[in-house]
Every structure is written in C-alpha cells, then in structure tokens.
Amino acid sequence: MPEPGTGRGDQLLTVDGVRVAIGGGRTEAVHGVSFEVRRGEAVGIVGESGSGKTLVCRSVLGVLAPGCAVTAGTIDFAGTSLVGLPRRAWEQLRGTRISAVFQDPASYLNPSQTVGHQLAEQLRVKVGKPRREARTAAVALFDAMGLHEPERVYHQYPHELSGGMLQRVVLAIAVSGEPELLVADEATTALDVTIQAEVLELLGRLRRERGLAVLAVSHDLAVIAELCDRVLVFYAGELVETGPTAEVLDSPRHPYTEALLRVASVGDWDRRTPDVIDGEPPPVGAEIRGCRFADRCDFAAPQCRSGPVPLTEQAPDRAVRCVRASEIALSGAGAIGAGAAV
Amino acid sequence: MTNTDLADTDLADTDLADTELTDDGRATTGRAATGVAATGVGDTGTGTVAVPQTELLRVEGLGLSFPRPGGGRRVRVLDDVDLSVRAGELVGVIGETGSGKTTLARAIAGLGAPDAGRVLLDGVDISRLRGRAQRDFRRSGALQFVFQDPLRALDPDLTIGASIAEGLAITGTGTRASRAEQVSDALRRVGLDPAVADRLPAQISGGQRQRASIARAVIGRPRLLLCDEPVSALDASNRNHILRLLDGLRRQLEVGIVLISHDLSSLAGIADRVVVLYRGRVVEDGPIADVFSRPQHPYTALLIASAPSVRRQDRLDPASLRPAAGADPGADSDSDGAARRSAGGCVFAHRCRFATHACAETPPRRAVAGRPAGEWAAACHHVETWRDQVTGSTAILKESSA
Questions:
Q1: CATH assignment of the domain containing B266
Q2: Which residue of B173, B254, B292, B386 is surrounded by the most CB atoms within 10 Å?
Q3: Which of A45, A53, A193, A277 would you mutate first to test chain B, the one with the most B CBs within 10 A?
Q4: Which of A164, A268, A271 sits opposite B47 (nearest CB)?
Q5: CA B179, B184, B189, B191: dihedral to nearest 10 degrees?
C-alpha cells in the first residue's frame, strides 16, 4: 500500500515545462510537461506506448538516446538543474542521489562478474567503502532485498539467477548509494505476477525504511495503483490528468483516464468482454490544434478542437486537461468493474 | 496432388495419411458434425456461454523431459498433463516462467518429443505421426500456432500479404488471384484493412502485426489454434483488441483455442476454462469463473492475490499465502527449487504456506466436492483445509456476486 506523501513544499524533483524532441530535434514528442516529486513520495506515470513517459523519465536521468534532447523547460533536483548538466556532475548524482531500475535487469549487469562483485564494486566506488567492508555490506544488502542465502547469491553470476532475483540484485545496486530518488521504468513488467507482487512489496518497504522517493513508469495502471501515492496520466506527449491515486481511480476527470481504467486489469474475474479504446493515438509529432484525444473520445464536441486545451488545476494536486471536465460524468474503477459484468 | 485442405474431411474416421483430399468448399457448418463423441461435460451454469460439446483436442498424461546441461538426471518439464478442448472452446493455460506452458503448446503442435501420453486431435494421436502422415497433417493446416512476438514470427522481407498466403502457396491451394482474395478476407476478418497486405511487418504497429499473424493462422481454417502469449508484448488496449478478436474467431470459425498466458486478467474476460500449470504439472483446472472466484489450490490463490488491481477491496494479501518464514528457499529460482524438492512430492510444496509432511507425496488431481468428474479438479492434499488457515480469507475467497 502506498504511504501518504509528505506535505507540499518539500520538493525533491521539479519538472517544469519540459519539451523533448526526437529524430535529431525535428519531431517534438513531449509537449511541455510539468510535475513534481516530493521527498519520500511515489509518483507514477502511466500511458500507452508512444505517450512520452519513458522520454520524460530518461530526461530526468540524463540518459536520452542520441538524437533526442530536452528543447525547453527545466528539471530541478534538490537545487541542481539537470538539463545540460555536465557529465562530471552527473557522475556525482547518478547511482548515489538518483538511481534507476529498468525492465530487463539482466542487460544492466555484467554477465562475466558475480553479482556480489558488482554490488561490492558499487559500494567501493560510489560510497567509498573499503574492500572488506564493501563485501560485508553487499551481503547485508542482498539479505535486505529478500534474497535467500545472500552469501551464496554473492558468488553467483547473473545467468544463474531468475528474473525476480536479478531485479532484486539490480535494486540492491540501485539503493546501495542511499539515493533520494529511484526511477523505476517498467521495473516489474517482465516479471511473473507472483514475483511482481513481491518486488512491489519490496519497493514499498524500501520507501518506508529509507525514505526513498520513487518515480515509476508503467503502461499498466494497476501496477501504478499498487505502488504510487500520485498518478500522472500521459497521452500523446502531454499530461492529461494528475491527482492522488485513489482519487483518480475513484473519480477520473479525463475521458482517457476512464478509458485506461476500463482496459486495465480490473481485478474482477466475472465473465465480461474486454474493453478497448477505439482508434490509435496520433502519430508522434502530429500538429493538433485542440485536444489530442478528441478523435478517440466519446465526449468530443466542437469546442474540444477549437484551440489548445490547458491543464486546469481543480484542487490542490488535482488537474485535468479537458474543456468538458466539469460537464461530463465518468465512472471510477469500482463502478466499471461492477457495471461491466455480464 | 498437393491440395491437402482438410476443412471438410472427417479426421475421426480416417487415417490422416490416407485422407481423401477435398477441394476448396469450406463450409464451416460441415465441421461441427465431426464424428467424435461428446465428453458429456455439461454447461456448468457459471455464466459460461453454451459451448459445443464436440471434443476436439484431448491431451492425456503427457510427459516430456529435457536433458540437463552437463548431464545428470533429466529435467521433467511436463508430467502427466491432461487437457481437453472442444470445438469453439477457449481454454486458458496459465503458469509462470518455467511452468512448462510453452513446452506444452509445442508438444501439442508436434514440436518436441513427449516420452509419455497422447495428443488426440479428433481422436487421432497426432504425437505419433511420422513421415508422410506427419507432413500431410502439417500441411492440412488443421493446427496453427500464434506466437508472442509477431515481429519475429513474420518474415521481415515478405509483405504481410505474402506471409499470410504462404501456407496456401506452398500447398498450391487455389490460383494466385483466389489466394489474394482469401488474404483480403482473412485481413478483414481480423479487423485490418486489406491494403495492409502490401506493407512489410516493420511498417505496421505491434497490434496490427499480431492481427496479421492471426490472419496467417486462420486463413487455412484451422480446427485448433495454439496461442502462446499472444498479448504479452502489447499494451492494455491493444491486448483487449486481440483478446476480443480471438473470442470472436472461435465463435465464427468454431475453432478451438488454447490461450497461453502468464497474465490472469487476459484470460478472465474470454476463456471458458482455465488450466493452471506449476512446474510441469496441472495443479488446478476448471471453469474460469469458478477457479478465479474460489481457487482450490494454494498456488492458484497466490496467483490471483498477486495480480495487481486498480480496485482495492476484496483483496487477499499475497503475503498471507507465502511461507511465513520470510524469504523462501528457491522461491523464484527454478533449478535450485526443483533440485531441492523431494522427488515425487507436490511440486508446489516448497513455496506453499500450508505444506505438511503429507506433501512429500504427489497429490492426485481430485474433483472439487460437489462437482462431476472432469469439470473442476485440484491437486492438493489440503484442498478442504488450507483456506481455514488464512487470516482474513473471506474477502477474496467469497463467491463472486455475479
């Protein structure tokens, strides 16, 4: 269960008006995104493939692929501006104050070194522990990650471990520098459902015990629902709705959020027809005058297409990008599950 | 003669090698009359739609082993697996990595060498086909496979249309023009614009590619479709599009579908029955609404409790189903766990909170109390009692309101 976030005004990460261009700067894929992550808070970005969620999270980590760049906006991490930060300064941040876990843990580990060696090396280089101490700390950290027989795991190579164990190893390396922010990009997507639940529990425990803030990215709203205090819904490179997770799930204000809820794993085993969102998202970089979701929206009206739709704050921490938000009635997670049963 | 379209042949009555080959008269209605006795499994009254009674596929006691790298005892990948699919029925096979679900699908398709059991399609043991009989069966297209990754399953250098028509071209079915017409029909059937036929796999989206590979599978009017994780590479909306498509196809074409998934929610909306595999053994099988609302095996219960949900109520904490002693030996380490468990014991015992000394012996699959044999069964020594040991168990395990 997500812990309640700390109060406002304790920002750790502030993303403001960030635009990201891909394809050598010609195509804009993220159109001015703003949000913040407070100390100890878990914030989740959810959206379809191509919504820009991974670009935003890579911008925060300073690891955009070649040809991609932040063209406007600022990213502030505890007083340090991350856009255009020199490489040497990144070395002081990544792995110690900001760290990350991704979908495929095996590809982030060296296959020819034992996992214990790799964690101990991180503890020596990034934390500055002497060799012997690093080894003891590594075993303790594996134990804290819920790895059984940590002494044995220490001497194993990545290929000897299952996907769930590898993700625990990668998490151990990620938190070894006592980071303030952990970026988790589809970190549990490739795992079996039983192991996914264990890794989500582990992330929750790390937050409680270490005061770790988490920026999670997933295409699965249910995973974000399990992990995060607040949710950011992305569509076609824009933030379309944000709010405390429970509020957004119970009473979505944007038709796209409602559609995502309908197609998400509603945890309801009654026989029913799987819901779909008709149509395709607009191509990346498409010039759209009005609402980017209008073509797929059941509530679209002429005013939706007449001009840019602003993200409107409705309450503290609660905002939606829909001109008809106040006049349309949408169903929350509870109503959808019960209503759709056949 | 190369035309081996079996659409109208009666596999039950004829040896496949000697099957009288018919031309292109593909009346789907002719298929339902295939002369195999119904198994007598009635509608369960659990909200499942009426399903044809004709048994199409019957897997009996299937066993398969792989050699262990570096020698030693062979790894038992499938052990005494039973599975039955009726025409037009959609059966889900669920299990985690290493449970043997892909091996099972491959063994049914004749890709793999079972060392025990039989695979009967319309009463003919297709696992014993060799040589010409095997080739003729394969060319008949009666059984088709849909893979997880359509980008790898479709030839990147062939247009979608050429890929879909390939099977027909190889068997020389119809003229070039009539094949093009069939390709258009198949594309429309899976909800794609026939113009997609001229594109390459890399030029269309992931969801469209999976539709194209389904079109490729159904163009020859198969009787059985084996789908191995067809939606796990897709996002939620595309996933549901494909699931709806499969659900529609089995009704329209009366094709039996085995849908393999690690994701329970993919199956919840469309499958009639579910088979839960763990380490190569069937631990539970039954009507999906029953299994998901009142799982009989602790592993099924753990799978359901672990599935993330956008709704919070009625959830059992998955931790209450795991062994109490925190981290568990080999919980997610396949080889080690398998080596550690005593030979012949319950495959799930090492991860089971409710395991006792009785679990050193393999539990038989027994019908759930009050249900006829073959409808709903679980392989657990503690079916009757494990639920009482879960605190707060009433929430998830109560009967569904539907």
A1: 3.40.50.300
A2: B292
A3: A193
A4: A271
A5: 150
